[in-house]
Amino acid sequence: MAGPNSLHALIEALRRLPGVGVKSASRMAFHLLQHDREGAQLLSQALGQAATRVRHCSQCNTFTEGEVCDTCANPQRDRSKLCVVETPADQAALERTAAFKGLYFVLMGKLSPLDGIGPKDIGLAKLFERAQDGVVEEVILATNFTAEGEATAHVIGEAMKARGLRVTRLARGVPAGSELEYVDLGTIAHALVDRREK
Ligand code: ZN
What we know:
By secondary structure, the chain is α/β, with parallel strands linked by helices. It contains eight helices and seven strands. The site of zinc ion (ZN) has 8 residues, from helix 4.
């Protein structure tokens, strides 16, 4: 019974991915086993390695394999500015503009009470501790311009101001409802340079 059991286990494992139901999980499993055994091996190795090696940067919370990520370890970065983003993809979007030389904090999500995502799930305590290192002077809120991103920015902004830090928000060049990842470079760079006091 090794065959069917293994197949069943594979389908169940694939179903853990977001948005994947039993039908698409079966299709993926059949495809890998029928047409792409090499791909199946690659996937298995890559998953195993990533799951073992990837962890969160102790300073900015993004994914990294070391204790501290390359950006946080870079001595050229301006340590007085801390830009708060939702995801590594948003950080990458800001980095591509080359308009920001400070450091980041990556929430790895956003506050979303309706989905049961609260302060603990996005590491707000870690951010508050990080921002109070005595070097950070300005916290730039670069969460997305969606309802949840705005709510997240509000909660963080109030907490940071209460701790005596300067708080700014990306300027409104970025269309409402949009995610930074999908906004063009010029618009993001402009929003960063024109950021407003909160
Ligand atoms: Zn880092």
